[in-house]
Design a protein that fits this description.
Blueprint lengths: L1 H28 L6 H20 L9 H14 L2 H14 L1 E7 L2 E4 L3 H6 L4 H14 L4 H16 L5 H9 L3 H30 L10 H7 L14 H11 L9 E2 L11 E6 L3 E5 L9 H16 L6 H5 L3 H12 L5 H7 L4 H35 L6 H13 L7 H4 L10 H22 L7 H11 L14 H9 L2
């Protein structure tokens, strides 16, 4: 009884610390001021608390191996959070255009995607892109120092970033590396064909390195930016869709204020899971906003549906390759012709065109993240010099995208430098999300999003948190690419 009480008490304190940290990091990413002294205090307490678990008697109670790995990662993160904050601040204050403006202010890292989406001046976009690439060297020592410090901290506990990541994901290095490479190779042909077609429509020429994934993801929908093909609004629609399935997302707060210093990318944060889950996004255009809103609400309904009685690890230790499944699944609704016509009231010809554009965006995603994932897996597995990563990244973008990006681009990304290992999880989850969709179609038919039984099935999968039953998935990357290549 004493040991059980000690673990219960430890868990309550751990959750309180996690919630306090998560709230401060959420505020940081939405561009609000935070009390850095308070954050320093919480990180120090967090590190000491997780160390008490790693060194104390609670580990003898049969707690899952994942809680041990989660504790090691928390200690490593606490030891490197200052580099992360400096990275956020440098990106926000130093990655600023000398001459281009958006919304009456200089273009910054936080606003450059909006700038790119709203200008027809390719030369201006290239200048901003090149300017930011030229300034990315400011970030290099922060990223390198953080990565190396995290590796050294995990080594103290007999593990390393890649091994810990793979163990939580339940995948071997060989399987994950093969999936990433094969998916990228399979996607390249249909991707380059679609890119050639859409680049001539969107920019009137062959795509270049500054016409990146985020530019095309928005601009491919430019024809719908002023006259959206639906009267529906993304937030209201996703909440109603989920409600019909028996899922309640009505109380999820959404920060959509366009403030200086706010993350360029939409994101969801589980502050205290499952009771406090929040979303942040920056508007792009009336129709393209559907994809990120549905994506982040997928995260939100997942985290808020986890059983409050589930273990601390099952609520806060959800692997990335699991966490992204439900977000990509819900985003996938607006990629479906049936949903567009039946739920958004979009005429069939427009719906077919939109589906084709989303298919192109998904192919770009697959090729882009094949390059990103191969770089990060190779970095942690082979330990090349940090200074060689830019050249390796250029090689990988040329290999999978057919376009040689300046290698420094990866340091300007929001996932690649901010997370030790995350990129491969997007590809794993994308494959699983398609398999989940097919599972629901097999059970409830083509209009599964109208069935409460489909919602019950999703709840069945979401409620256990990290202990999800992935029996619906065979991780068939070939089927995933075939689904994107179908005319």
């Amino acid at each position: 009884m004493g040991l059980a009480l000690s673990l219960s008490s430890w868990t309550k304190t751990a959750e309180s610390l996690e919630a306090s940290k998560n709230l401060l990091y959420f505020r940081q990413l939405v561009g609000l001021k935070i009390d850095k002294r308070r954050l320093a205090s919480i990180e120090a307490r967090s590190s000491a608390h997780y160390m008490s678990y790693l060194r104390g008697p609670a580990r003898a109670e049969g707690a899952p191996r994942g809680l041990y790995l989660m504790s090691v990662a928390a200690v490593g993160a606490a030891g490197t959070y200052r580099q992360l904050l400096r990275l956020y601040e440098a990106r926000s204050s130093k990655i600023v255009s000398r001459e281009s403006r958006y919304g009456g202010a200089p273009v910054t890292w936080g606003s450059w995607r909006q700038f790119s989406a709203n200008t027809d001046d390719s030369a201006a976009r290239k200048r901003v892109f090149d300017d930011f690439l030229g300034r990315s060297g400011i970030l290099s020592p922060l990223i390198k120092g953080r990565f190396e410090a995290y590796r050294a901290k995990l080594a103290e506990f007999g593990t390393d970033p890649l091994s810990a990541y793979l163990e939580l994901e339940g995948l071997s290095y060989e399987r994950l590396d093969a999936l990433v490479r094969r998916l990228g190779e399979l996607a390249k042909g249909p991707f380059t064909e679609a890119l050639a077609r859409y680049s001539h429509e969107v920019v009137g020429r062959t795509a270049e390195y500054f016409d990146d994934f985020y530019f095309f993801r928005s601009r491919v929908f430019k024809r719908y930016s002023k006259a959206a093909p639906t009267r529906e609004k993304p937030i209201e629609k996703v909440v109603r869709t989920m409600r019909r399935m028996g899922l309640d997302a009505s109380k999820v707060p959404v920060d959509d204020t366009d403030r200086k210093g706010k993350s360029a990318s939409a994101f969801c944060s589980g502050i205290r899971i499952p009771s406090d889950v929040r979303i942040s996004y920056r508007r792009a255009n009336p129709f393209e906003d559907f994809a990120p809103v549905f994506h982040e609400f997928g995260h939100a309904i997942h985290f808020s549906s986890i059983d409050p009685g589930a273990s601390f690890f099952d609520r806060y230790g959800v692997a990335n390759g699991v966490a992204e499944v439900f977000s990509i699944f819900f985003e996938g609704l607006v990629h479906e012709k049936g949903f567009l016509t039946a739920e958004l009231g979009i005429p069939e010809p427009a719906a077919e065109d939109i589906v084709d554009r989303f298919r192109f965006s998904s192919l770009y995603f697959a090729a882009f993240y094949a390059a990103n994932s191969t770089l990060k897996l190779g970095y942690w597995h082979d330990s090349p010099p940090f200074e060689s990563l830019d050249g390796l990244y250029s090689d990988l973008t040329e290999r999978y995208l057919g376009i040689r990006y300046p290698g420094a681009y990866w340091k300007l990304h929001h996932v690649m430098p901010d997370y030790f290992l995350y990129s491969p999880s997007y590809l794993v989850a994308a494959v699983r999300a398609l398999e989940l969709r097919n599972d629901l179609i097999g059970r409830f038919g083509e209009r599964y999003w109208r069935e409460r039984g489909a919602g019950a099935r999703l709840l069945e999968l979401m409620r256990p948190g990290q202990s999800v039953d992935l029996g619906f998935s065979k991780l068939d990357e070939s089927a995933y690419v075939r689904s994107l290549s179908a005319a």
